[in-house]
Amino acid sequence: MKKEILKRLPSPCWLLEEEKLIYNLDILSDIKRRSGAKILLALKGFALWHVFDLISEKLDGCCASGLHEAMLAHETFGKEVHTYAPAFKDEEIERIAEISHHLVFNTPRQFRLFADKAKAVNPALSLGLRVNPEYSEAPKEIYNPCGLYSRLGTTRARFDISLVSRLDGLHFHALCEQDSGALEKVLEAFESKFGDIIPKMRWINFGGGHHITKKEYDRDKLVSLIRDFKTRYDVDIYLEPGEAVGWETGVLIATVLDIVHNGIDIAILDTSAEAHMPDTVIMPYRAEVRGAGLPGEKPYTYRLGGNTCLAGDIMGDYSFDTPLKPGDKILFEDQMHYTMVKATTFNGINLPAIAMLKKEGEVEVFRRFGYEDFKQRLG
């Protein structure tokens, strides 16, 4: 990235690259064309509404996890809104129903509690139930929606067959940044559990976690799985990726504030793993840094640390070709998905600005944050 671009940006800053986003959207659009499936943007993974004009040209709508995401989709995306939550609140259900096209319940009890009220508000609303196929290859148990004692979705043992005549569709979610081979096995489990019910549905939602835009992903297999399923059951198919939309579309730019030596060299940055890159702590994983290598791979190794008082606010150890100094820029790769939607102002640290590098080379800063953003969220 050109130094003049970095100089024009505030720090820290999330910088989305428009050209890379369009590249991902073109891949997803091709999957739609070849498979006949509809694809929704999962707002829980990527909700940067400033670029919804680009995304809405290629995708069919958004999937929301509750009232606020549904409102965002309704107000800024302008296409289908599919809403699911583990449990709905009575005071919110009418507004959710009013602005949604699909409403998916987590349990038969939730369906019986809210379905009539939702339909009274919006007779055109399509109703569904999330089911648990009881099979997943999720790489971490914290991200396994089908794990032991999962609260997400209804198992076949808890399914209420009397609701079938009122259901338009079934929804499952069992993947986490995985290939179509994992989906194939999930579909086998799904059909073995609910194969007698699927033919009575109008649509089936295959959920999210499809790593479609990753280079190694087998997209031909995904197309084949969708087309075969549609042929067998004559249903509409929905996918709802989040990370596949934002995958490798931008960076988190930070600045070195100081260099500390305590047995090793430590660079203190104006960002935070805890507050701004939470999945690196939760998943956990080591975010790549542009131009850096593994510890000892290059001549100068540093531990990169955040500017909060949390002792564990550490990004990891990286090596560089030249020594780091205050003022240097550090670019953390692939920081568009599950970052902005999860970020906090822990310890009063400022949220990164949000900007986009346009394909013509211009930079647009969408949002800068400051003290008032920290203050107002606390009262």
Describe this structure in words.
Helices cover 29% and strands 22% of the residues. It has 379 residues and is of the alpha/beta class. It has helices spanning 3-8, 18-35, 52-56, 67-76, 90-99, 108-121, 180-194, 219-233, 243-246, 273-276, 279-282, 371-376; strands at residues 13-17, 38-42, 61-64, 80-84, 102-105, 126-130, 169-171, 203-205, 236-239, 250-261, 265-269, 300-305, 314-320, 329-332, 353-357, 363-367. It folds into two domains: 3-15 and 250-335 and 343-376, Lyase, Ornithine Decarboxylase, Chain A, domain 1 (Beta Barrel), CATH 2.40.37; 36-246, Alanine racemase (TIM Barrel, Alpha-Beta Barrel), CATH 3.20.20.10. Helix 4 (67-76) packs parallel to helix 5 and helix 5 packs across helix 6 (108-121). The longest helix is centred in the first third of the chain and has 18 residues, at 18-35. The two termini are 40 Å apart. A hairpin with a 3-residue loop joins strand 10 (250-261) and strand 11 (265-269). The mean pLDDT is 96. It is built from twelve helices and 16 strands.
